[in-house]
Amino acid sequence: MRAIILAAGLGSRLRPLTNVTPKSLLCVNGKPLIETQIEYLHEIGINDITILTGYLSTKFNYLTEKYNVSLKHNKYYDKFNNIYSMSLIIDKLENSYVIDADVFINNNFLIKEISSSLYFSGKKNSYNEWKLNFDDTLKVNEISFSSGDDYIMSGISYWSSKDAKILSEKLSLKMKLDSSNWMNLYWDDIVKENIKELDVYLFKIKSDDWFEIDTVEDYESLVQKFSK
């Protein structure tokens, strides 16, 4: 097992906090977001970790010595969404976690024994988020945009060998045929478009197990919440 952490983004909605600090290196509960993620991965025995960097990439260099992670740079971080970052690391998707670096993980819900692809998800009362629709067996059969109290993407998933091969082929094809649209695509769009071919299930977590940080208000609220 391995892990891919996507940390190339500009974090423009968090300015001025991200003027000199990448979003994933902001601290909550006394520790940078990405370090919490790495340490939780280590707790379940995952040490093969690759971080996709972009904006202020040199700020991540200390992690190689501290945690023995690998860094891979996305030089087009300011032009394209994370579909391009994934295209650079798609050969490592097999049996791998994929984690958005701007997610604060409050509890370590990551697991080691996994038999299929998983979306880790809890209910959030959110507006315009990626909603996971699933059947009685928890198999995800559709991904849509929705508001309300729904199971939404947490930014944390796991991909089996079989599904990784399908997604690798689909992503490569998309990059060749739809290059003019890279700036408008996320890697999750590849999953969304091909969900019927995949064998991915919902892994339920609590609504307060994770928090996505999009704005300065989000960040300040979390800092205050977890400083108590």
Quick structural overview:
The chain contains 6 helices and 11 strands. With 228 residues, it is of the alpha/beta class. The strands form 3 sheets. The chain has a 7-stranded mixed sheet, sandwiched between helices. The chain has a two-stranded antiparallel ribbon with strand order 2-3. A two-stranded antiparallel ribbon has the order 7-11.
What does this structure look like?
The chain is an alpha/beta fold. It has one domain: Spore Coat Polysaccharide Biosynthesis Protein SpsA, Chain A. The protein is 26% helix and 32% strand. The protein contains 6 helices and 11 strands. It has helices spanning 33-43, 62-67, 82-89, 161-177, 187-193, 216-226, and strands at residues 2-7, 27-28, 31-32, 49-53, 70-73, 96-100, 103-105, 117-134, 140-159, 200-204, 210-212. The strands form 3 sheets. It has a 7-stranded mixed beta sheet, sandwiched between helices. A two-stranded antiparallel ribbon has the order 2-3. Strands 7-11 form a two-stranded antiparallel ribbon. A hairpin with a 5-residue loop joins strand 8 (117-134) and strand 9. Helix 3 (82-89) crosses helix 5 (187-193). The protein is globular. The termini are far apart. 38% of the residues are buried.
Share of residues in helices: 25-40%
> What is the radius of gyration computed over CA atoms, rounded to a whole number of angstroms?
17 Å
Main sheet: strand order? 5-4-1-6-9-8-10
Query: In one word, what is the shape?
Result: globular
The span between the termini is 35 Å
- H/E element string? EEEHEHEHEEEEHHEEH
